[in-house]
Design goal:
By secondary structure, the chain is of the alpha+beta class. It contains 22 helices and ten strands. Strand 1 and strand 2 (20-22) form a beta hairpin.
């Protein structure tokens, strides 16, 4: 740092007239302290802003970009990306959207990125197998090629013999007078046989590569699942989007579904067969007719952006079909119930889901699709049963809740977090449609209130919460598995607050609980403490002041 004199000289300055002005250390410290000093009000505002940021961060859990998507991005940066990795990334993002782990805005952003990757890396399958004409040409030119090869072989042999004679004259080279044998000449038939074997081996390799190569393309996917493997009627009947809009668990809703299909000009007989067995003209105009008729009855978002995978010698699969199949395989029935609890579906189910992604064999994938159909049938039966028995409590302003104690289909949801989530989302959409109808009545009475003609009972009513979250509990032996699904707008970025409030409510109720899963929106509560847990959960959510329009 230099001597004391140098440091003193550095602290001196010269003004415009040439007079030196000394700057002491004390004056510099005072200036620095004056810049950093904040008023008490500013400090309070800074602390409040920091507390708000920390509170928002720890307010709930949320899902980020799918791991499969991140792995594909990493492979692309390393120059090792391909269509198989890209397809896995697409399936991962689609699974998040199907299970309501990301909102529509996040899904559209991820799909836009994946669509760019598809346009960049998609391999168009071309027929690279050698044709019969190539074989004929090779056979026709065999004589000329064989003659040329024979002449070249003879010249090479002569050169080798001449070189050997010069280097090792007879009787001198190795002391025995022996020369190396000339190269064995290949006969015409042997060469043709070898060429034929090489072509056959090349053909087998190209066929294997062609069978494993996949082609990805952008497609519009309907909001009803597995319609390519199910009948159109069953697919729409069990769809969470269609079923909740029309109320198909009621006789009136079933009639509306029949009228909807009839207005599209689709005979019920055609709608009852598998999609592949439908008339080609009906399949071609299906998307246009559903979109046009859907807008008339309020089905504005009957399709969404997705992808299709086409592979040689196999059926076409959509990303949504694969996601539903994998979810069903992960939670298929296991003989050991404890194994299903320790790992989602068990280790064997995880390997089955991995086998379903195999390129050559799609038998496991088809089995998963059948399991998914059975699961969605159970979901619709359970929804209809709970609505008929009025098991859904939506009177609370902050959330709706329901519980399953006994049911013929309880085995589909007990210790099955993914299936329980699907049922909870279905029930949440049912409550949402009821709240929308109540909001229409509330707005009408609001207008009457302004004009002074409103009923006195409506003046004190609060606005219905259209985006009301859902809490669903299913009974095990002595505990309840509780799932919380957070309802949000398409552009809302709020977190799932149940990941925090579940644990807080259980601790305040002094209940016996288990809250150590990967997804914090699930908690296992002792049956004797469930009601206390509900009471504290209600207090926490009401005090949170969930905002509404």
């Amino acid at each position: 740092y230099g001597s004391d004199g140098e440091r003193a000289q550095q602290r001196r300055r010269t003004d415009a007239e040439g007079n030196s002005v000394g700057v002491t250390k004390g004056s510099k410290k005072k200036k620095k302290q004056k810049k950093k000093k904040l008023t008490r009000a500013e400090k309070h505002q800074l602390l409040q802003a920091t507390a708000r940021k920390v509170g928002q961060y720890y307010r709930g859990a949320y899902y980020g970009t799918a791991t499969a998507h991140l792995m594909y991005d990493l492979a692309h940066q390393m120059g090792k990306d391909n269509n198989e990795l890209l397809w896995l990334a697409i399936v991962g993002v689609t699974d998040q959207y199907n299970n309501v782990r990301i909102n529509k805005e996040k899904y559209d952003i991820d799909m836009m990125s994946l669509e760019q990757a598809v346009n960049r890396t998609n391999l168009h399958i071309e027929d690279e197998v050698p044709s019969d004409d190539d074989d004929d040409d090779a056979a026709a030119g065999g004589d000329d090629e064989f003659g040329a090869a024979t002449a070249a072989t003879a010249a090479t042999a002569a050169a080798v013999d001449g070189h050997a004679d010069k280097e090792h004259p007879a009787g001198e080279g190795d002391g025995l007078g022996l020369q190396p044998p000339p190269p064995k000449r290949e006969s015409y038939d042997e060469r043709r046989r070898r060429k034929a074997e090489e072509r056959a081996m090349k053909r087998e390799v190209q066929l294997a590569n062609r069978a494993e190569r996949i082609h990805i393309e952008v497609a519009e996917e309907f909001r009803f699942m597995l319609y390519r493997h199910w009948s159109l009627y069953d697919s729409m009947l069990h769809s969470e989007y269609i079923a909740t809009k029309l109320g198909v668990w009621r006789e009136r809703g079933r009639k509306q579904l029949d009228d909807f299909l009839a207005r599209m000009g689709l005979p019920l007989q055609e709608c009852g067969v598998q999609h592949s067995a439908m008339t080609a003209t009906i399949r071609a105009s299906l998307e246009e007719n559903i979109a046009e008729e859907g807008r008339r009855i309020g089905l504005k978002e009957v399709t969404y952006r997705s992808f299709m995978m086409k592979q040689e010698y196999s059926h076409t699969l959509s990303a949504s079909d694969v996601a539903y199949s994998l979810s069903a395989l992960l939670e298929q029935s296991s003989s050991d119930d404890d194994q299903a609890r320790t790992c989602v579906g068990g280790v064997a189910n995880a390997f089955a889901a991995l086998d379903a992604l195999a390129v050559r064999d799609h038998s496991v994938m088809r089995r998963g699709i059948q399991l998914a159909m059975e699961q969605w049938r159970a979901v619709l039966r359970q929804v209809g049963s709970m609505i008929a028995r009025q098991d859904i409590n939506s009177k609370h302003q902050s959330f709706a809740f329901a519980q399953i104690d006994e049911s013929p289909d309880i085995s589909y949801f007990r210790n099955r977090p993914l299936a329980l989530t699907k049922l909870a989302v279905f029930l949440m959409r049912v409550v949402q449609e009821e709240e929308k109808e109540a909001e229409i009545v509330w707005r009408r009475e609001r207008k009457k209130q302004k004009s002074g003609t409103a009923d006195a009972s409506y003046r004190k009513r609060r606005r219905p919460n259209v985006y009301k979250p859902m809490v669903l509990a299913v009974k095990n032996q002595s505990t309840y598995l509780v799932a919380g699904v957070w309802n949000q707008k398409p552009s809302d970025t709020s977190h799932n607050q149940f990941s925090v409030t579940f644990r807080q409510a259980a601790e305040q109720a002094e209940a016996e609980f288990t809250h150590d899963g990967f997804d914090a929106s699930f908690i296992e509560i002792a049956a004797i403490h469930l009601q206390d847990f509900y009471e504290h959960l209600t207090l926490l959510l009401n005090s949170g002041g969930r905002g509404r329009d």
